[in-house]
Write a structure and sequence with these properties.
heterodimer, A: mainly alpha, Citrate Synthase, domain 1, two-stranded parallel ribbon, B: Citrate Synthase, domain 1, 3-stranded antiparallel beta sheet, 16 helices, 55% helix, globular
Amino acid sequence: MSKLQTLSGAFDWRAEAIDWPVTTDVGPGLAGVVAAETRVMWLDPSSGELAYRGVPIDALASSPDFEATAHLLITGRGPEEDPGGLANFRHQVRSSRLLPPDVVDLVRSLDPATHPTRILRAGVSALGCHELSVDDDLSGSRQWRELRIVGQVASLVGEICRHRNGLGSRAPEEGCSLSEGVLAALNDRRPEPDEIRALDLLWVLYAAHGLDAPTFTSMVVASCLADPYYNIVAGLSALRGPKTGGASESVLDQLLPLDNPGAAEAWVRKAIDSGETIAGFGHRAYHMPDPRVVILRKEVAAMARSRGRSELFEIARTVESAVTRELAPKGVFINVNFYGALLFHLLGAKPPLAPCLIAVGRMAGMAALVSEALDNIRLYRPLSRYVGVGDRTP
Amino acid sequence: MIGNGPVCAEQTYGRGLAGLVVGDTAISEVDGIRGRLLYRGYPVEQLVGRTSFEEVAYLVLFGEMPDASRLADWTAELVRWRHPPEAALDALQRVPARAHPLAQYRTMMTVAACHIPEPENTELDAQWRRPARILSWTAGLAAYAIRHLQGLAPVAPRDDLGYAANFLYQTLGEPPSEEALEAFEASLVVQAEHGLHAAAFAALIVISTGADLGSAVLAGMGALSGARHGGANQLCFEMLARLEGPEHARVWALEALARGHRFPGFGHRVYKCPDPRVRSLEPYAEALLASRGQKKLWHTYLALREEVEGALGAKGIYANVDSITGLLYHPIGLPVSAFPIPFCLAIQTGWMAHCLEYLPDGRVIEPGAVYIDPE
């Protein structure tokens, strides 16, 4: 039996193995609970280190390539280690973007004003019906499906962007990368190289983040041996929550109406005084600024400058400093959604599309963490303590 | 309530969070040692046969048995939502018939969820509108899906029928017999809530992110669709149907036991004693099967249960609720692939109750993972 002081500041979440059962601290929202063992990623709340399969996030972000990162997360092999495998992987995810016409019809039959995450969920569900039949054995290896899911979700998100923007259906150009395909759908034009780079970067940074609520939901559902498309439907149901991926949408809703840094400063003061939630701040995992923020801030600054939107960056910077000044002493720091949402916006996404775009990146980590967990999983079935009324009779 | 537990405490638990207490609840007491299940303090076996599903759903969701006027309002609200969005019904035309029925049903639900208005009103009237809409829409969608599966035309709902009767009417195309209705209603009553099982837990994680109730129910459904969870009543029935009779059941069970075989419908993470829901439903199954001339199936079940419990009871393995519900749904006339559906309809009540209980100030549920170095 292992005994772990998981909520103490300096606790190291690395281990050689867990000797079940385990004794740990348990905080609200299951903070401190060890719900899984993983080789997929490494997240250290005390040092702010984040690595996928042992590769530090900074290294992956320096020349971002989402497909290679997805391959790394899912298979554990880097591009140098397995160039053939990566080429094959790219081919598979890209070619799985061709959606059945029925699925495209279903997406297009929905009101374009419907929240994009709801449409995405319906699309994934319908895809699952085409992908799996009642006779499929789901107990065996599912990896091919997870690879397909990454490409399929990217393709669906592209369709949803077009539908939302009043454009007709168009499949991604054959052979282009996932990010090129989604950007072309989003803006209805060939994307610029810096846009492709930025979207790859966003997806790399959003790809995996431990057992956040969407991933953990997916894992609980997978532990019941549901079909992989149901895992994704469930994960997407959590992803849109305003306390997780949905926060990206709220960030834009809050930032975009601010006209100048002065207005931003005033808004922050008012929001903090009235106890309003400021989206893009606060994270369970870190007791320090999220390591992905530094990378994204730089990217947003560059993109805003080149697009003549420097004022937007200045406004964001002002909000960041004002909130940090007020809340950092209370342990509330900026998180990935703040600059992440801004970068999605600079790439052409309206606020409601942001959570959906996050989903594409997140599919890679979800696929990796969930399929890893399936090897050695036990049904997630915790307990609750009854504190209600005593026996009574009808 | 759940989410408002002690700020930090030390706990010991196993894989799958076995033994971990997530928080406090006032909804149900699942006592796995004494084999008791209570909804808001009422033992479930006392509710069976006395209360309708509507009453039990109200009790589970809102904490008290409804008086006549509240029950009338609640019933009217449930009736109001018996027509799911057309688009959700149409979705079925866009998925292949060979897809798993639960995947088809899921697709209808995801499309229906696109028609839930947002942002959701959180005022009191909305508090019960949201669960009522989900309970009734899903029943309508499920009935439609089951008929579609059999190549049958849909049947419009009948406002004069209760929840259980209308579901069977819309599914079977004719009002159920009295005994079929009683048995079906009993199965909904005993399956309306069951603590923090995996599906309820999945729903709770989703609601903890601030997502809507429909999203939480979808995640719960996902968990339920898995073979380890809600699909078990179908698997158990198929196992029973393959056996030729009580004698064959005994011989096969002994042989399977010797091989270390695991039996769907037997064993439970919480109950280490006979499942109280099984005892409540067995009389209905026996009567219903006898009246349909299927006594042999009943005795096959009894023989299998005796053998398995005789061998494994000492290890705490007994028949669970999934072993018995198929023996109700088969004589009622539901197709085998639809067996998980009534469980889904009933148990989502409990998930929604847990979600409503968690909502006020529950924290996002995000546990940690230990990183194992590949070396």
